[in-house]
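In response to a reviewer's request, we include the raw inputs and outputs for one of the modeled complexes. The two entities were modeled together in a single run.
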Amino acid sequence: MKISIPHIHKIEGEAGFWAKVAQTGKVDELKIETLTGLRQIEGILIGRKIKEVPIVVSRICGICPVVHILNACVALEKALEIKITPLTILLRKLFLASQIIQSHTLHLFFMSLADFFNIENDLDLMKKFPKEAEAAIKIRDFSLKITKIIGGRSVHPMTAQIGGFSKLPDKDGLEKILKETPEVLNAAQILIKTFRDLSYPNLKRETKFVSLYSNKEYPFYQENYIKIGDEILTPADFYSNKIEENLKTPPAKRVKYKGEPYMPGPMARIKNNRQLLSSLSKAVFEEFLKTKGLSEKDFFENRFYNLFSQAIEILYFLEKSQEWIKEILESNLKESIPEVKITKGSGLSAMEAPRGTLFTYFEIDKNGRLINCNIITPTAQFLTNIEEDLKIFLPNILNLSDKERKRKIRSLIRAYDPCISCAIH
Amino acid sequence: MKKKLIKTKPKVAIISLTSDEGCQFVLLDLGKKLFNLFKEVELVNFSLIEDKNLPPGKIDVAFVEGVPITKNDVKLLKLIRNRSKILVVIGNCAALGGVPEMKNYQGKEKTIRFIYKNTKGIANPEIKKVDNFVKVDFVIPGCPINGEEFLRLAKILITGKIPEIPQEPVCLECPKRATPDCYLVKRMICFGPITLRGCGAICPKNETACLACRGILKNINPQNFLNALERFANKKEIEECLEIFGIKDEIIKKVK
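The model returned the following structure tokens for the whole complex.
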């Protein structure tokens, strides 16, 4: 049997699916093909001045520009040994969290929920789930307001630069946003309930989870360590020695860890750091396991639960946003951006994007121009892991009708929330 | 009482070529306002929120984002043109080549060699804006587009009319204009005076200079402005700024 889906809708960027299954049910061949053109952002950056770098990397992705900008800024700050202020760090955390919240919410309601019902179009979905639609839009509007007040606008924000922000958010705006948080936390509970009550397809496959790792705070902005499986190592060691980009089958530079596929993302972050979630979000996770009668092992072996992991993170980052806004308001919201002194150097930064760990590496010459550049996105890291999951999943769904089978395939691919624009930049 | 005429809703498609899809996210970020607009149309394609392929038949207004890089991009673009009464390009990539066009200035073979040793099978054309491939009826500019402006213009476009954006500079919308805070007064590069307004001068308002992502005004010769910039900035520096949003080749055409 041949199964082909030329265009998988409702994901960021263009991709298709292709598989060949033998009469016995054995999967002979299976692949996800990326179809988006290559824009060559890494090549474009060579020879450019460091000041332009945040502007250009932002255009890698329209849904997660914030993490591309921030990771580039941190990598350049490391290369130039620039020390940034505590207020900048706090603003960056809030900025990054706002992007994670909006991206997850968009994915959960607008890209994934319809997969669980026989609905092809989100406008019909909104008619069927008006309360949930309202909640999702409310959460998105709220997080977009935060992105805008810090970044200047939601898509391709311009204020975040090397060393800090060109403009600081105004106090009144932040106070107004803070007042909305209780209502938005309620909306998050609506979304959580919706995704708790869904009936998820079965899937059992162990994989290695990778994310930043900490013993202080649920890690996402900057940490000293990365955890993969049971191994804990530095981001530099992981990036330089343990993972390899496949340059033979372009344009997506698929990444493996010691030759094996692995998975970054919300599920990986929860797997590696769940003890650092808030008590409320931890309780939501535990209640989910109890309601579904799942062990932790069952949960992490079924990638469809990446969706519920996103729901948990929405709640967690909303709670933290509330704390961070309060903290920012308590500061006097004044700072001066440190001076940028051009020197030769190199810097690597690892940061948690909505879809997983993003690695950004730059080398700068003595004139402040890039001479080397590498950006490893979450989707490039997990594409092969989706294929391995699909190889296990496909035999379970061979008895379904063609239409239903394709829907299930698409829904597993979408559960990862792949971003093909990021994977092929 | 007047009898209500049963009108068929205009068919609208939102199509993406190679891009970061940022302009489509600007649309989704409009939230309820976008979904209210969608109530007035029949949405025949918007693959970010629909799990179905483009149905056959005529399209009244097609909004096209991105730049044609792969063969499929070009094929899709031509198909959409053939079937659409009005084809609108949205965003800097489609309108002017955008950030991907930066490679044209470097020598495209050199750029790709930096990324891959083996480049066989990778589409690597010279980046050309959409109107090199098909006739474009209207441009909604910006990187990304401005959501509110899109709503205003889209409401006119779905009635079958072509709107107009006044050919006036960003400076008209800029709070720094004629103040000591103006980038040009501070002898810093800013393309506000030659750039089409409509963004609300959002970059200067956020303390960053205008890089002309909306494209330069139709009715001007930018030569005098460039000469003025050269009094405090060197030519290479100015040109590099013009490369970011695909403006340099437009300027060269104009000052010839």
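As requested, we also summarize the result in words. Chain B has a mean pLDDT of 94. The first helix of chain B runs from residue 22 to 29.
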